[in-house]
Amino acid sequence: MSTQPSRQLETFENPMPERDYTIRIAVPEFTCLCPKTGQPDFANLKIEYVPDTRCVELKSLKLYIWSYRDEGAFHEKVTNTILDDLVAATEPRFIRLTADFNVRGGIYTTVVAEHRQPGWQSPAPVTLP
Asked: Over 60: is that where the pLDDT of 1 sits?
């Protein structure tokens, strides 16, 4: 196999650092293991961020997400760990990670974690007629 899972997130320079804009990334095949039973947990991750000077490189993100496949993790912990790693790599103005986990034991779990640079204000939303 030419590629392997990796916890190394690569970045590249934001091509438009003078503008606030949103990058949305969907990761529909996130997998980790239940730390209690060892059964697989599946989730749809939604990453939304306003970059500052760095953007996350998508192939490295794919390999990073893959690295959780055989790891036991509570939903709350893995969501916040992924967010912390994305913040450390990209230092975004704002980032939100929504993790929608599939049903386990008749219960669906959604965990939402956010980070905002101190002093950063979201632009006012525009409503068009």
From this structure: no
